[in-house]
Amino acid sequence: MFRPGCLPILIGSLPLEDHREATNLILQYTPEIPLWPQLPKNDREGMVRQFLSGFPGIVDEGKKFWINSGCSDFADQMTLFYEEYMLAESDPAILSSSRFRLDNDTAKGFASLLDVITEVKHTFLTLKGQITGPITTGIGAKDHLGNSIFYDDNLRDMLVKHLTMKARWQVKELLKTTGASKPIIFIDEPGLVSFGSSAFTGISREMVKEAVGEVISGIQNSGGLAGVHICANGDWGPALDSGADIISFDAYSYFANFTLFRNQLIGFLRRGGILAWGIVPTGDPLVIAKETATSLFQKWQDQLQTICDFGFTEKQLGEQTLIAPACGTGSLTLEFATKVLSMTREVSAMSQAYLNRPL
Question: Which of 34, 53, 112, 164 could form a disulfide with 19 if both were Cys (CB 3.0 to 4.6 A apart)?
């Protein structure tokens, strides 16, 4: 079983435009579990747009995009989509040349990571990829009438299958490099805890569970570890019960609410689930400026003791912990983003030393 032992991990986005520069920065601070960088300064690498290439009816116009489900040949496009999906389901080798692969127009960071680690012969524990979740994508992507596509049963079904295959493609490609080590794919899905709010009117718990569950199963059945990254706050029950291998949460801001879901959290940890502890703040530059690795480590120690009181030892929790930023750093300045990465690595080192101290 994967036991990270408080190693550092990142979420994905960085405030750079050059993918190779971003990859080198990632290798500097998280060499054990590097990931491919997402650079939202590039138009098609925004959180919602990045994984929609190949989706039926996708229209790009400058920085805007939408799904034109009202075009005359949309039914034909749907038929072709499902035909290709079923072929890829029956023969995953087809994924490499399918609409579900990640291309340089939206995910140049994927190829950049593999190129760099090959050139420098970089050793690592495993590699990390990511996909934006179906709820967040489905609410953010609009059809030609301006409606979120998640509310349309046909579009939602295609979207879930589309994202599942994009995630499976990443697992397949990363396995070529990781070998026996399972790649990690994070599903970036703040919407998983937000259903029931005004922004998610009409979305049921069952819809959320089915949509995210299909992506999780696709990752796991392809040989990867499925993580769910949530930088929001709300009902943590569906995430903890989702079957994900890793839960990434904003421990800096929302730890107290997270631990209110005690029974689900205990169940998640007892089945071997891993917490990506987002102890390093990313939302407010003023907060980032005032914090240090030492202050964050002390905060993490206090939080660790809270969960130990649920019936776990420090050693056990430490083995099932990754140290992470609360979210990506794509909206920060490079100075603050670099500080976040540096503090993440330092807190990780402090945590490992603490758990391995002589007793």
Answer: 112
Stretch 3-24: mean pLDDT: 96
Contact in structure between 184 and 134 (CB atoms under 8 Å):
no
How many Å apart are CA 137 and CA 33, to the nearest integer?
Answer: 26
Helix (H, G, I), strand (E, B) or coil at 195: coil
Write out pLDDT tens, residues 277-299: 999 999 999 999 999 999 999 99
Residues 6 or more apart whose Cβ sits within 8 Å of residue 104: 111
**Greatest C-alpha distance within the chain:** 71
Which tokens is 322 given?
């990754």
Q: Please say whether the beta carbons of 160 and 134 come within 8 A.
A: yes
Beta strands in the chain (DSSP E): 7-8, 58-61, 64-67, 128-132, 184-188, 225-230, 246-249, 274-280, 321-325
Residues 147 and 197: beta-carbon distance below 8 Å: no
| pTM for this entry | 0.95
Strand stretches in 12-145, DSSP E: 58-61, 64-67, 128-132
pLDDT tens digit sequence for 30-68: 999 999 999 999 989 999 999 999 999 999 998 899 999
Taking the C-alpha atoms of residue 42 and residue 18, their distance in angstroms, rounded to an integer, is 9
Which candidate, 119, 130, 176, places its Cα nearest to that of 36? 130
Two structure tokens written together for 252: 């800096």
Residue 127 CA: distances (Å) to CA of 37, 86, 185, 205, 253: 12, 28, 9, 31, 27
The Cα–Cα gap between 182 and 194 comes to 30
Contacts of 54 (CB under 8 A, 6+ apart): 98, 99, 100, 162
Cα–Cα dist 64/246, whole Å: 33
| Close Cβ partners of 195 (under 8 Å, ≥ 6 residues apart) | 135, 203, 204, 205, 207, 208, 234, 235, 238
For 12, 314, 316, 342, 359, the CA distances from 40, given in Å and listed in that order, are 10, 38, 37, 21, 46
- Distance, CA of 197 to CA of 194 (rounded, Å): 6
pLDDT digits (tens, 9 = 90+) for 316-336: 999 999 999 999 999 999 999
Backbone angles phi, psi at 65, to 5 degrees: -150, 160
Phi and psi at 308, nearest 5°, equal: -60, -35
